[in-house]
Amino acid sequence: MTAQSYNQMKQEMSYLFYITSKEVISQYNNKLKAYGISFPNFIVLLYIEKDKPIYINTLCKELYLDSGTISPIMKRLEKKKLIQRIRAEEDERRVMIKLTEQGAELKEHFSQITDDVVDEFGMDKEDSLAYYEILKTFAKKNIYNQE
């Protein structure tokens, strides 16, 4: 590969990163519309385990979200009665959240939603596994090591 074609490939990668991430989010949002939530709401709910409250600051760290991003998500999820805020007894400034029954019931649909979205990409199992490994490697090199 020549230096010129390599540079062209890198420019095309920027475009491909953009359109594929946009398409993935769009596919999820199309499926999630029926449940009245968006992709960021889905990601937050996905992370919260049933019967296991989590501190909001822990959620921010784990999902790489800042407080300005997580606050409106928390408000929307609470308004929809999908989560409940709990003040820590030892320090009322610290807030935990937990899934409500309604949130837990909604979460039961998540694996089917993910299956449907991934199936719509038209990748066979081998391609899906290869793509997963590429994404994991990218995250390890560019996100997880920045802490």
TrEMBL record:
SMART domains attached to this UniProt entry: HTH_MARR (SM00347)
Keywords, in A-Z order: DNA-binding, Transcription, Transcription regulation
Subcellular location: Cytoplasm
Pfam family of the protein (one): Staph_reg_Sar_Rot
Domain HTH marR-type positions: 10-147
Alphabetized SUPFAM superfamilies for the sequence: Winged helix' DNA-binding domain
InterPro entries: HTH_MarR-typ, Transc_reg_Sar_Rot_HTH, WH-like_DNA-bd_sf, WH_DNA-bd_sf
Family that this chain belongs to: Belongs to the SarZ family.
Annotated protein name in UniProt: HTH-type transcriptional regulator SarZ
